[in-house]
Design a protein that fits this description.
By secondary structure, this protein is an all-alpha fold. The protein has helices spanning 36-56, 63-84, 95-116, 129-151, 165-183, 191-206, 212-224; strands spanning 85-86, 89-90. It has one domain (2-7, 32-54, 61-224). The protein is globular.
Length: 225
């Protein structure tokens, strides 16, 4: 799908439909518009394509490239915070905006796991303790978002998302945490993450009847558990 990046197309204006008049387009407001999520998704598609091209290439993983991509993902996240959050916290009056922010966070933390995975293994010559910490934090973040879509009342209208990619990302997060726990079984600082992992496995178990992704992943997660 990376060929889509070569298409010469103009991005739609980041405005609501009623801001488009016969003779003009009104300036976008500081609030999320009907196009904000689409704009951010396209930007993440462009960035994720670059990252996946790099990871699939024969070039050796290096910390300089890791730092560049890391900053770019963080830059995208800061844009989402500015639009969807109110003083750094969810806007209680805008459930759809918070749901969109959560969806975008799934993409970001998925990319963090892909970027930091090569540097995460303690016995590897490329091991970075910062990357290991990032994998744990991002794995937990994916499980947190999954938990909210499953159980948070204000996101009940978006609960259908857990049958698909939302659970896929949660499974990725659970696998990352499981890997870290298995590598450092005696590390007491990681013990709280075992509870996070167990709770995620329980949610995946409950979703097996409605999600093919969960049905396929549960036996593996249960074995690791």
């Amino acid at each position: 799908m990376s060929a889509l990046l070569n298409l010469d197309a103009i991005m739609p204006a980041d405005v609501n439909d009623n801001d488009i008049k016969c003779d003009t387009i009104l300036a976008p407001s500081s609030q999320p518009t009907q196009m904000s999520l689409m704009k951010f998704k396209i930007q993440m598609f462009q960035l994720s394509t670059k990252i996946c091209r790099h990871l699939a290439s024969q070039s050796k993983e290096d910390e300089a490239t890791l730092s560049i991509f890391d900053r770019q993902v963080a830059g995208e996240q800061s844009q989402w915070d500015a639009i969807y959050l109110l003083d750094g916290s969810p806007n209680l009056l805008d459930s759809s905006g918070y749901a969109h922010w959560c969806i975008l966070q799934l993409y970001a933390h998925h990319l963090y796991l892909l970027l930091h995975r090569p540097f995460c293994k303690p016995r590897s010559s490329q091991f970075r303790s910062a990357s290991r910490a990032k994998c744990i934090v991002s794995g937990k973040a994916l499980l947190d978002v999954h938990h909210q879509f499953c159980d948070l009342p204000r996101l009940r209208h978006y609960r259908w998302l857990v049958a698909g990619l939302t659970s896929f990302y949660a499974i990725h997060g659970a696998m990352a945490i499981a890997s870290c726990l298995l590598d450092e079984a005696e590390n007491l600082e990681l013990s709280p993450y075992r509870a996070e992992f167990d709770a995620a496995v329980e949610r995946i178990d409950k979703l097996r009847g409605s999600s093919q992704i969960c049905a396929q992943a549960y036996p593996i997660l249960n074995h690791l558990q």
